[in-house]
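Async update (no meeting this week)

Hi team, since we skipped the sync, here's where things stand on the single-chain job. The sequence we agreed to prioritize is pasted below, unchanged from the tracker. I ran it this morning and attached the output directly underneath so nobody has to dig for it. Comments welcome in thread, and please keep replies under the output.
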Amino acid sequence: MPAIEKTALIVSPTPDAEEAEALMRKKYDWCVLEEAETVVVLGGDGFMLQALHMMLDHGRILPAFGMNLGTVGFLMNIWDGKCDDFAKRLARAKPFAVSPLLMTATTMDDRVIEQPAINEVSLLRETRQTAKLEVSVNSHIKLSELVCDGVLVATPAGSTAYNLSANGPILPLGSDMLALTPISPFRPRRWKGAILPDSSRIEFRVLEEQKRPVSVVADQKEIRDIRHISIAKDPARTLTLLFDPEHSLDDRIATEQFVV
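Output:
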């Protein structure tokens, strides 16, 4: 079997992904993850996020080429069901750099927790009571009281995910911007959110924290009962996604703006 040099396979534990894995392992030899310089991810967007976070957690960040065996597959390439000439396909792939956010949360019992986020950081009310939040940008208070179900900060790569479903803007890749999007805002009633430079530091202070508890979710990691959140781009780490030249993430984001 031909080998794909210094490339490891990471597979979602789903029947479709495991079936694709069997075909890929039948046609090619793969190296172990510890020796890899590139990874191929079989699964959906959620599993790709898990794989990227695993690399962030272990401090060994490798370029990732995903193939969609999930639902939407926004961060993935097309799975053709054959994987013929896959080594040539991988060699032709174009890299795209993604800068994650770094979220720093302080809880009501004064624990400080840091967590990276590739798509978005979202604050959500924990009870039937709406959340009340103070919103600051670069240490300047922009909203003294935002009453809402929640609010999120999304990267360009994540702007078509939860952010879009909350009526947030789609951000072109390379725009160096962040979307600040409210979730079901009640006051100020007419505030629809903001688009900010990705050099911004965005902070949220939870008001009436005992009566109106709030949780924060950084991609898939939830922290409950928070008091304060600080969000900024992580300058120390960059992720690399690999895409077929004819199926780039830039093109997909542009296309999403015309979907009705």
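Quick observations from my side:
The chain has two domains: 7-99+238-256, 101-233.
The chain is about 20% helix and 40% strand.
Reply here if anything looks off.
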